[in-house]
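Changelog excerpt

This revision adds worked examples to the README so contributors can see how folded entries look when concatenated. The first example is reproduced verbatim below.
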Amino acid sequence: MLTQEQVDFYREHGYLVVADVLRPDELEEAHAIVDDFVEQSRHVSEQGGHFDLEPDHTPENPKVRRLSAPARYHPFFGGLMRDSRILDLLTSLIGLDIRAQGDKLNMKPADGGSPVEWHQDFAHYPHTNDDLCAVGIALDDATRENGCMMVVPGSHRGPILDHHQDGYFIGAISPSRDHIDLTSAVPLEMKAGSLSIHHARTLHGSALNRSGMSRRLLLYQYAAVDAWPLGGVGNWDSFNANILRGEPTYDFRLVSMTARTRMPAGSRSGGGIYELQKPLQEQEKVFATG
C-alpha cells in the first residue's frame, strides 16, 4: 500500500516512483523471457503481430523496440499484471475496482533505441473519467543516458493538448507550436525492479538511448472499472474479462472535463506509436535528436 505522503505526491505531480518491487529472481526470469522473444524476432522482417521492430533490425542483429500485449503471450507477464504488489498500490489512486486497460514492453537496445515523443495517454484513449494510470516496471536500470521516461510534473491537472498535425491524429504534441515549456520535465531514473506510476493525463516521453546499456520498460495500463472508453467497446464480455478487481457495472461515472477526439487517424500503418509519431519527428526532431 502507498503511504499518504506518496498519494499526496501523486495527486500533486501526476507521477510516483516506488523502489524495489520485483525480486532479483523475477528480474532474471523476465530477462530470459525477453531475450527469447528477441531471438524469435530474427525470423521477422516486417512490423506486425506482437513485434514492433527498430528500423535497423536485421536477422543478424535483431532489434525490437516494442512487444505488444506481452501478458497475452507469456504467463509471467500475465501474472505480474495481476500481482497484488502492483494492484494494492493503485487502490489509493484509482479506486478498489480495477480493470486492465492494455500492456506493452518498450525496449531500447543499446546505442540508439527509438524515442517516444511527448504525449498524454488520455489523448489516445479518452474515458468518461480520468481515473486511469500506467505502471512502468524497470527491467533494467533506467537512466538519462539510456532514455528513461521523462514527465512534466503537474501536467495532469492541465488540459489535454492537441495531438494532431495537419488535421490528423499523430499521438504526439508539438511543443513549439503550442509553446509548451518542457524545462520542468523530470527524468524517472530508477533501478531495475522498481516501478513508476503516471496519471493518464501526465505529459511524458523518452529520448534516444545514447548508452551502451539496454532500457526495457514493461508498461501496464489500468483504469477504474467505472471508467467507460469514449471510443466504445467492441465486445462486452471481453471488456469485462479484463476486470482484475471488482465486478462488471452498467453505471459509469461521468466527470466534467474536455476530451479531445483521436480522429481522423494518421495515415501511417504498422509500428504503433512510433510510426504514428513519425510526422512530428520529421518536422520538429523533438526527441529524435535527443
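The second example, added in the same revision:
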Amino acid sequence: MNKWKKSRAAARAKEIWRRFCKNKIALAGFIVLSIIVLVVIFANVIVPYEMATTAAPKERLQAPNAQHLFGTDDLGRDVFARIVHAAPNSLLIGFTVSFGSLLVGGTLGIACGYFGGKFDNLIMRFLDMISALPGSLLAIVMVAVLGPNMRNLIIALIVGQIAGFARMSRSVALSISEQEYIKAAKAGGSSNLRIIFRHAVPNAAGTLIINTTMSISGVILSACSLSFIGLGVQPPKPEWGAMLNDARQFFNTSPYLMIIPGLAILITSISINMMGDGLRDALDPKLKS
C-alpha cells in the first residue's frame, strides 16, 4: 500500500514538473532564480566578504571597470561584492517570512476552518484587529519599537503576513471540511489531528504553496523598502534597499550605485513571480494538457 502511494506521488510530481517545463516563461524564471540561489550559496567563493565591508578611500566612486566589475561606492567598497553578499540577506528574509507566515497563519486558518464556532470567531476577530493596519505600516511600527535589525524585521513582516495566510487557508479548509471523505474519516473514528494532517493539509497544500511562492517577491520588496528608510538590515551588512538609500546623493554623478541594486531587486522579484505563475498553472487540477 505504501509503495503504491509513493509511486502515485512520484507520478503526480513528474506530471507537475512536465506541466511546469511547458511554460517557457516560468522555466526561465526558475533558471534565473536557481542562478541567484547558487550565488547565495557560493558567495564567499565568488568574492570575499571583506571586499563588501572594507572601506578603501583611495578607490571611492570608481565607475565600473576591469578591477571593479560594478564600480565602487562612496567608501571605496566593491559594489559587485556588496550585491553578491546582500543576496543572502534578501532571500533569507523573503523565504523565512513567507514560510514562517505560512506555518503560523496556515495552521491557524486550517484550525479555524475545521473547528469553526467560538474558536473560529475568536481567532479571526483577533486577526482582523492585526490587519486593521496595513502590513507595511504595522512592520514599520514594530521595527521602530523593537529596534532595527534583521531579526526584528523578520518578526514584524511575519506578523503583518499572518492574517492573509490565515484567511486563505481558512477558506480552503472550510470547503474541504464539507467533503464526503472528511465526514467518512470522522465517522470512522479518526482524531481531529489525524484528519487535519492526513486530509485537510495535503488537499490545501497546492493553494498554500502557490500563494507562499508568490508572496516571496512582495516580502523582498517590503524588506528592501524598510531597509531603505533605515529600519531593516543594519550596516555594515550589505542589503539592496540600504544600498539604494546610500546611493541617493550620488545619483547625478554615479547613477550606477542606484541602478545596479535596483536591477538586482527587479530581476529577483520578476523571476520569483514568473516561477510562481508557472507553479500555479502546473498545480491546477483543471489543466489536462
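Reviewer comment on example two: The chain has a mean pLDDT of 84. The CA atoms of residues 117 and 123 lie 10 Å apart.
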